Amino acid sequence: MSLGMNRAHYTNAGIRENGTFSVNLPDEPLVMKTDHRGLVSGRKVDKGAPFKTFSGKLKTAPMIEECPVNMECRPERTVDFPSHDICGRPGPLVNGQAPGRRLVGREEVEITRCR
Question: In CATH, what number is assigned to the domain containing residue 31?
């Protein structure tokens, strides 16, 4: 798993400090609520406030309980570019959850099942 983010984002400092990140895939009813979180800065707003959050094995990569798919990752390295950071290589998935019948095999998420 790899992420590319503009250095101006508040999230980058947390990833660098903790060495972890999470990816939470919302279902359709949750898309508007999660999309709005992408329009505000974590410097000004607690982005987790509208959700039930929990910590997994890594303890520093909060996940959203309402999302049907949650993944905790630890980037193996960060590549610095003038305006962006790329975290990953790809970072190993430390822990993943996809309750119900959202998985194909052991490691693939069937995105059409996440509606």
Answer: 2.30.110.10
Q: Which amino acid is at 45?
A: V
Locus of tokens 């992420």? 3
Spatial separation of the C-alpha atoms in residues 45 and 7, rounded to whole Å? 18
The DSSP bridge pattern shows strands 93-97 and 103-104 to be unpaired
pLDDT tens for 7-28 read 888 888 888 899 888 888 888 8
Instruction: Report the 10 Å Cβ neighbour count for 95.
Output: 15
Number of domains the chain is built from: 1
Query: Over the stretch 48-101, which tens digit does the pLDDT of each residue have?
Result: 899 999 998 999 999 999 988 888 888 888 888 888 888 765 556 667 766 665
Flag whether the pTM goes above 0.70: yes
Domain that holds residue 108: 3-114
Q: Longest Cα pair distance anywhere in the chain, in angstroms?
A: 42
